[in-house]
Amino acid sequence: MSHSTSDSAMFSEDSTTEGRTKPPRRRFGGIGPAFVTAALVFGPGSITTASSIGATYGYKLVWVPVVATLLMLCFVDIGVRIGLSTDRGLLPTVARRLTGVVAVLVGIGSFLVTASFQAGNSVGTGAASTIIAGGDARWWAAGFTLLGVAFVWLPRFYPVMEKLMIVIILIMLAVLIFTAVISKPDLGAAAAGLVPSMPEGSAALVAGLGATTFSVVGALYQIQLVREKGWTRADYRTARKDAVFGTLILGALSVVIMLAAAAVLQPAGIKVTSPAAMASILQPIGQWASVIFAIGLWAAAFSSLLGNSTIGGSMLAGVVGKDSGGLASVPVKLSISVVILIGGIVAVAFGRVPTELIVTAQAATIVVVPLIGLAMVILARHRDRETLRIGVLQLVFALAGLAFLLFLAITYVMKLLG
């Protein structure tokens, strides 16, 4: 699909050089972008949804995060392929082949999704901190909001964020595996849960859990992250390994928290309405167990607070053509700061996530996410990708992913009408 001059003019032309300075090879230079994606995707909402499903349906829906992880692997790889084979930023890449209108829809939609979820991340940092150290959750949320803003303005924001996200994702993995182990899940029942089934009344929760792992917006942003890393076509094998490890860890986080909830909560008939509730339920095992879980919750919340806002701010700057220079540019940093502050202000003012924001996020997700997925598939099959163009097998799998996104949309609409 050709592009017009007016389409491309809507976006920064200088973005052809952003993030392309080849960094020196370091010991851990082969990992990063997908770990950032995993850390920003797995937040308090992921913990709440996985805990709720485990508490309600036990091990019956273990297959959901497994399938969602496979779909996420496919789309993260697509994001990597596009990012390594484009000579411009994320939205200019979309505008070049799919018109500026599509790029604006993708940018605005992604901003709305991330901004709407940002309050939940701020609330999560406050709730976790209160469990660990006591105090007022709102003040903690305010403090970590300001810390997030200060972090954005570090001179080398992306490299420092990447290192922080790798550490945080490993902390979360260790904490949640520990939580699952001390919960003593039934591994036989968990294995049986790998066989797809749909218990009565589970469709909405299945859609929610699938969306917390299979994040198309997160996969889309992989295009920018590999550019920030400085990788080129020659680094595809390295980038693919990073994508596999980071995405598998993302899926593992959802699985282990579901196993813990199935083992501890379902036998007691306890429902989960917040991630902090899961920590309090672990207190009979020991106060230390609750605190350790809260550390994992804080890690999930703060990493999403920072990473989620990075996507939203970048998209906002891109829509107005001010994303030249990537995460190092002042307009992008300003936009990211705005998203962080939006979440922090809502968290402090309400102490929770307002229902209106949840509805906005869900509505934006339903409308925009299938469009983003379709745009990624079209770009991945374009001749611009050359040797990185996806093959027929991956195309078929990607189309299955699009069908899953439509399932999420239909489920949401039916829930509204029901």
List keywords for this structure.
single chain, 418 residues, mainly alpha, 16 helices, globular
Brief summary of the model shown:
With 418 residues, this protein is mainly α. It contains 16 helices and no strands.
What can you see in these coordinates?
- The chain starts with a helix and ends with a helix.
- The chain has helices at 5-9, 33-41, 44-57, 63-84, 90-133, 137-152, 157-183, 187-192, 203-213, 216-229, 236-264, 275-281, 287-319, 330-350, 355-381, 392-417.
- α5 (90-133) runs antiparallel to α6 and α15 packs antiparallel against α16 (392-417).
- Mean pLDDT is 85; it is low at 1-6 and 12-27.
- By secondary structure, it is mostly helical.
